[in-house]
Amino acid sequence: MKIELLDLKFTSDYFYIEQKSIVEKLTFNNRTFYSKFEKFKTPLNPTLLTQHFKHEITLAVSLVENSCVNYMVIEYQQKDWNAFYSLIKHLLKSLNIQNFQAYQNSAKEHFQVFIPTNDTSLELVYKEVENIQHLLELKSKKSYKIYPNKNLPKNLNIITLPTKKA
Known about the structure:
This is DUF1882 domain-containing protein. This protein has 166 residues and is of the alpha+beta class. The chain has a single domain (2-165), classed as Alpha-Beta Complex (DNA primase, PRIM domain). 24% of the residues lie in helices and 40% in strands. The strands form four sheets. Strands 8, 9, 10, 11, 12 and 14 form a six-stranded antiparallel beta sheet that branches. A hairpin with a 2-residue loop joins strand 1 and strand 2. The protein starts with a strand and ends with a strand.
């Protein structure tokens, strides 16, 4: 099922809702991960999206579908997101990436940059993520996350949906 939100389009038959306590414990590459996101195997509906925009619930979707990725996402959780956004714009321009969108989730102070990849294979996206991450490490402190992350299980490569355009 197609999900359209702001300028973003996702294809998914399931979604996640953030819970107050840990829902799932996973072991991956000798590491243990705890997730507060509960998976619902039904399509997302307009009522849930309305609740998300009113900050009553937090919705998330998977970035990895059938070993393909439609978006790379850079997430930043600091109040000085404007300075970080300037850095990201410059970095992406230097990599000849012209197409990207910036969003915010005002309730959680998330700043997110979505970079469309149009059904690119997971391995190619991992290489591009590593390249962006390497360049960001040279210029910025480590207060950002880039998804999809190959050090996470595929079902934890999820991203919270933004609530407004930056």
